[in-house]
Design a protein that fits this description.
This protein has helices at 39-46, 93-96, 151-171, 187-198, 214-220, 232-238, 255-264, 287-293, 307-319, 338-346, and strands at residues 2-6, 14-19, 27-36, 55-56, 60-68, 80-83, 110-116, 121-125, 134-138, 142-144, 180-183, 204-208, 224-227, 245-250, 265-273, 296-299, 329-333, 352-355. By secondary structure, the chain is an alpha/beta fold. It has two domains: 2-159 and 304-355, Quinone Oxidoreductase, Chain A, domain 1; 173-299, Rossmann fold (3-Layer(aba) Sandwich). Strands 3, 5, 6, 9, 10, 17 and 18 form a seven-stranded mixed β-sheet that branches. A six-stranded parallel β-sheet has the order 13-12-11-14-15-16, with helices on both faces. It binds adenosine-5-diphosphoribose (APR) and zinc ion. Keywords: Metal-binding, Oxidoreductase, Zinc.
């Protein structure tokens, strides 16, 4: 089958013929119908995350189950499914504490699976490798959703929406009337802006380096848009009685924007790091400031969500017309056009590109 493969850090991804073994015991084969391009994929391409190569990109996707291995009980051929890039084991200490997003078995950026057509061992992003015609994954990595849910929307639920809305609703527990700033308006940040407004937050201040994100910010429901520069913290304070926001979300994955989120939060407020940054990019905070500001710094892994519980709930919201994700799709393409989507993302353009393999 064909898959989008990156061969080394910094090289452009290319559509490549690869071979996947069929589903083993408790695995399933899924035909991918829609897959989003997420910044974590770009971080695998540009080397920020230093995964093993060659690597099949992609981890935000939906499709149809086409084959099941022995002992598969949670899904059947023909089911429409969203892929979960952090399937919990349900047995470890974290899973037992109902924190499946911290499951001890997850957190590896890539794992070995299949071979290239020339026989070279291949790896797949986050256990999926979903920018491909098909994936073979453990049954725990698929979540069945109603067949009426469009594949594009279903794909977005699997990463950008679960992450962005989970960060607002679950990690930060934003309440009606709270003030929120979201820094970084890609698919993840825009989904967070939308969820913040849906939770009744006001103001919802959207911040991005690119002035071209203004329209997208407002389409997602932001009450204000700021181009991030040296005046951003002052501008955020001006809209929050001089204090700063109750919740500042960092959806970029850089120390500089974590610092910006820190300074944009009010005294006693919370800073939620949603972006996945590089190992050697160090966040510096003044010790006196950490004490005096009384802020909380936390991160949101996969929106502090349980995909088995939350993906069907989000799917139901979409079908009920409560969750309208149209604003998140800025481009559509095929596998052959996917490399260009990485270039657009690197330039900070658009929201999500959806790839229909
Ligand atoms: N200040 C403000 N915005 C910035 C800055 C900055 N210094 N640097 C980059 N940005 C903006 C970009 O202009 C872009 O709009 O951050 C946005 C990032 O969007 P995407 O590249 O589309 O990323 P996305 O897929 O939303 O992921 C965001 O979450 O899951 C993690 O690994 C992912 O770290 C990434 C983050
Ligand atoms: Zn992602």
């Amino acid at each position: 089958m064909r898959a989008l493969v990156v061969r080394a850090a910094g090289e452009p991804p290319r559509v490549t013929d690869v071979e996947l073994p069929g589903p083993a015991e408790s695995e399933v084969r899924v035909g991918v119908r829609a897959a989003g391009v997420c910044h974590s994929d770009l971080s695998m391409v540009d080397g920020t995350l230093a995964p093993p190569y060659p690597l099949v990109l992609g981890h935000e996707a939906a499709g149809i189950v086409v084959e099941v291995g022995g002992g598969v009980s949670r899904t059947a051929v023909g089911d429409h499914v969203v892929l979960n890039w952090a399937p919990p084991c349900r047995r470890c200490w974290f899973c037992q504490r109902a924190e499946p997003w911290l499951c001890a078995s997850t957190g590896t950026p890539a794992s070995p699976r299949g071979r290239t057509a020339d026989g070279e061992p291949l790896h797949v992003t986050l256990g999926l490798g979903a920018l491909a015609e098909e994936v073979v994954v453990p049954q725990s990595a698929v979540v069945p959703v109603p067949a009426e849910l469009p594949f594009e929307t279903a794909a977005l639920l699997g990463c950008a929406v679960l992450t962005g809305s989970g960060a607002i609703r679950r990690t930060a527990a934003v309440a009606s009337g709270d003030s929120v700033a979201v820094i970084g308006l890609g698919g993840v940040g825009l989904a967070a802006v939308y969820a913040a407004r849906a939770a009744g937050a006001d103001p919802v201040i959207a911040v991005d380096l690119s002035p071209a994100k203004r329209e997208l910010a407002h389409a997602a429901g932001a009450t204000a848009f700021l181009v991030s520069d040296s005046s951003t913290v002052r501008a955020v304070r001006a809209q929050t009685g001089g204090r700063g926001v109750d919740h500042a979300l960092e959806c970029v994955g850089r120390s500089a924007t974590i610092g910006l989120a820190w300074r944009a939060a009010r005294r006693g407020g919370q800073v939620v790091v949603v972006g996945m940054g590089a190992k050697d990019d160090i966040v510096g905070l003044g010790a006196l400031d950490v004490f005096h500001s009384a802020r909380t710094l936390r991160s949101s892994v996969y929106g502090s969500s349980d995909p088995d519980r939350d993906l069907p709930e989000l799917a139901a919201d979409v079908l009920a017309g409560v969750l309208d994700l149209g604003f998140l799709v800025s481009d559509r393409t095929t596998l052959d056009g996917a490399a260009a989507a990485f270039d657009r993302m690197a330039r900070g353009e658009g929201a999500r590109t959806l790839v229909c393999p």
